[in-house]
Structure formats: C-alpha cells, structure tokens
Amino acid sequence: MTTENRAKMGVIGVIVSIATIGGFMFGYDSGVINGTQRGLETAFDLGSLGLGINVASILVGSAIGAFGAGRLSDRIGRRGVMLVSAVLFFISAILTGIASSSEIFIFGRIIGGLGVGAASVIAPVYISEVVPADRRGRLSSIQQVMIIIGLTGSFLANFALARYAGGSTEQIWLGYAAWRWMFMIEALPALVYFLALLMIPESPRFLVIKGRNDEAKAVLTRLFDEGIAERKTLDIEQSLARDHHRPKLSDLISRTTGKVRPIVWVGIGLAVFQQLVGINVVFYYGATLWEAVGFTEDEALLTNVLSGSLSIGACLVAIAFVDRIGRKPLLEIGSIGMALSLATVAYAFSTGVPGPDGTLVLPGNSGLIALIAANLYVTFFNASWGPIMWVMLGEMFPNQIRGSGLAVAGFAQWIANALVSVSFPSLVEWPGLSIAYLGYALFAAVSYFFVRAAVHETKGVELEDMKG
Nearest-5° angle of CA 255, CA 256, CA 262? Predict the structure, then answer.
C-alpha cells in the first residue's frame, strides 16, 4: 500500500487549505496596488519615481520578511511565523487605508511586505512538511492558486469599488475614497487567516528539530497511520545533522569545500529568474499599462480580472501535471513560452506612436496583439515558474538547511522583485515599453538554459532524501 493511500487526505486537505490562506493574503496585498495608483498620485502628489517607490515599498518589507521568516521558523515554528504574518497583514490593511501622507503609506506597505515575505516562503515549506511525497507537488502548487485568487480578488474588489464610487478617487464610506477601501477590506481575510491558523498543528519536521519527537509523532499520526508516523519520525531525526545542532545560517556552507553549497545557488537562481522575467510588472502596473495604450480605467481594471482568471486556469494545469511529468519539464516549457510571448509584446509596443494627448497609441491590431500576447505570457508563467519555483524552494533543501536555504533564496527573490518593480516606471519613459519587454524576454530565454544545466528533478523524492 502506498504512502498516499495510507495518508489521511481529509485532514491534510483542511490543513493545506488553511495554510494557503497566506497565499491569498500574499496575492491580495501584492495586487491591490494595481488599481490604486491614480489615488496615490492624487493624494500624495507623486511623480513617476515617487509612484515607483510607493508601489515597490512593500518589496522592502517582503525581502526582510522572507529572510527573517526562514530563520525565525527554525525558532518559533512554521505555524508561529504564519500567525505573525496574519497580524502584520491586518495592521497593514488599516494603516495603508487611512494613511495621511506618503511616508505613513510606505510604512504601512513595508509592514504588509513583512507579512507577504513571511507567507511567501513559510506556507510552501509548511505544506511540503505535512503532505505525502507523491502528492507534494500538487498540494504545494495550491499556494500559487491562492496567490492568484488573492490577486484576482484584489482586481475584482478594485473594479467593483471604483465602479460603485464612480472612480477610484471618489469618496464612498466614512469619508474615505474608494482606493483607500481597496486596502482596508483586506483586514477581514487577515482576521480569518489568524483564527484558522489556531486550528492546525505545527510542522512535524520543526518539532523534531526542537527535540519534541513525541509531539512530532502525534502530529504525523493525525496525518498518516501509526506505522508510517513512527517511521517518518525516525527518518526526520536521522536526516538532521549528525551532531543534532540547531539549524543555523552557517549550515549553508559545505564543511567539505568551505564554499556555499551548490543547492543554495540553484535556489537563488530559481528565485531570481522568476522575477527577472517581469511578471510583477503585469501584476503591479497592469491598470496603468493598459490605460497608457488607450484603455479607460474601467476597461483596464476589467482586463486585470481577465488576466487573473487565466492565471488561475494556468495554475490548475500545473497542479494536474507537476507530479506526473515533474518540475523540470514544466519550468523548461514555461521559459520557452514566456520568451516567445514577451518578444511578441515587445514587438507590439514597438509599433506605438504618440497620440494627440501625448500618450502611447498602438495602431491597427497592435493593441489586440499586445493584449493576447501579454495574457499568453501570464498563462505560461502560472503554468510553470509561478507555482513550480515555490514548490521547489519548499522541498529541494535538506531538512537541516531548509529554513536557512529558504531565507536566502526568498530574500534574493524579493530583491529581484524590487529591482524590476522600481525600475519599470522609469523604463516606460526611457528607453520605452518595447525595450523593457524585450529585456524580460531575454531573461526568460536565459532561464531555460539555467534549468537545463542546474536544476535536478525532485518529483516523488522524500524530503529526508533531498541532497544538498
């Protein structure tokens, strides 16, 4: 009988569903900025650089949160870090909504970023540590589905609130403009997330690291039959460092060579390439981008909803195939698809001409080509690099260095995210959208060769058997 058949999938399903609420919060907090930029510019009198800083300020917190969460999870536990992130999401939702200045808004977004960074790295590792190996890819991929549902939820909320108010800068309830409520309504799912987390157990791998083997076995008995639970507890204990010291950052250095372990560089490469293909340009600046080529605010926000819906469908494709054909083939297919679709977007924008009011206009069918190609790009990303990068970061590191490996890779991911996001508004002005998208296309092409050369398949491998 397989481990999958002996796993208590009902219990595991509930635990995974609660853990991935963090993905929803991650997605909503990242995507809500998309429909609020007109309000930010008006309220805080921002230019292109100021807007870029306000939009990307969340990424400062995210980088710190990702690095700190990986290490903190080895001290207070995976669930403990998720509880902290829920509190941070709640505080951020209120603070950004009522901010009276750009400085207060940036502070609130950094707090939210701490939660985003923590949720981004801890939910995948928690899921990978409580599910059977033969379903780990599918169940870990649900995190990306929830991220996209969160993004799409923010797009829908932005669209609905803006339409209800007659524009994102118009006031609705309690004297606050619609764009402010786009942030504040996030407080409700943050509260649900916190309360739901109280009902799930701590990761058994963390409990063994802390020497709480009886508690770990009790958790594993809730997830598998007793025989499997006892064997897994022993396997986890044996997979840790021989001297059973507490996990630390220096574990990333090989004792044999004195250099950073190769698996750490692979994790950093996966994390960075996921951002250098420019995906968050679409998620953070989608509404502004489509308004720049002639869409109304209403049409631009609705286009975001379309992109989000396609993303959810693409994530379901990844879930269907990740445990069948593996992680590496999906990454390779995604790299090729993204490179081609991004190159097409670059071509479409290269045909643009200034309109009567100075804004970019795409002649003929170029606007339609750009729209189709951009959504193909989003589809390829979310069928491959979107979920698979997080799946691999959650499972590829040996138990002893999983927290530290995630800390470093997660930090690199958010730094790359910040560089892409902050630079985009300036790139729109010079050298232009076409060159910017061509650059993202080149990074997508390079990512294919990186995967071919450096990434090893992890499909079906037990966490205790991961090599690093």
Answer: 85
| Through-space distance between the first and last CA atoms of the chain, rounded to whole angstroms | 30
For the segment 254-279, the average pLDDT, to the nearest whole number, is 93
CA atoms within 13 A on the CB side of 454: 19
What is residue 289's predicted lDDT score, i.e. its pLDDT? 64
pLDDT reading at 241 higher than 90: no
**What is the full DSSP assignment across 276-313?**
HT-HHHHHHHHHHHHHHTT--HHHHHHHHHHHHHHHHH
In three-state secondary structure terms, 259 is coil
Global pTM value: 0.79
Q: What is the pLDDT of residue 356?
A: 72
Burial (CB < 10 A; 0-12, 13-18, 19+), residue 18, is buried
pLDDT at 245: 64
> What is the distance between the alpha carbons of residues 466 and 332, in angstroms, rounded to a whole number?
22
**In a 3-state reduction of DSSP, which class is residue 2?**
coil
pLDDT digits (tens, 9 = 90+) for 214-239: 898 898 888 887 788 888 888 777 76
Sign of the Cα torsion 179, 182, 187, 190 reads negative
Distance separating alpha carbons of residues 370 and 349, to the nearest angstrom: 7
The upper half-sphere exposure of residue 42, i.e. CA atoms within 13 Å in the direction of its Cβ, equals 12
Contact indicator for 194, 86 with CB cutoff of 8 Å: yes
Structural element, H or E, at residue 158: helix 136-165
> Residue 413 in contact with residue 386, Cβ under 8 Å?
no
| Contacts (Cβ under 8 Å, ≥6 apart) of 105 | 40, 44, 54, 57, 96, 99
Burial code of 443-455, b = ≥16 C-beta within 10 A, e = fewer? bbbebbebbeeeb
Give how far Cα 116 sits from Cα of 95, 263, 461, Å.
16, 24, 28
Rounded CA separation 242/251 (Å):
12
| Residue pLDDT, tens place only, 38-75 | 888 888 888 777 887 887 788 889 989 988 888 788 88
3-state secondary structure of 275: helix
**17 against 30, higher pLDDT:** 17
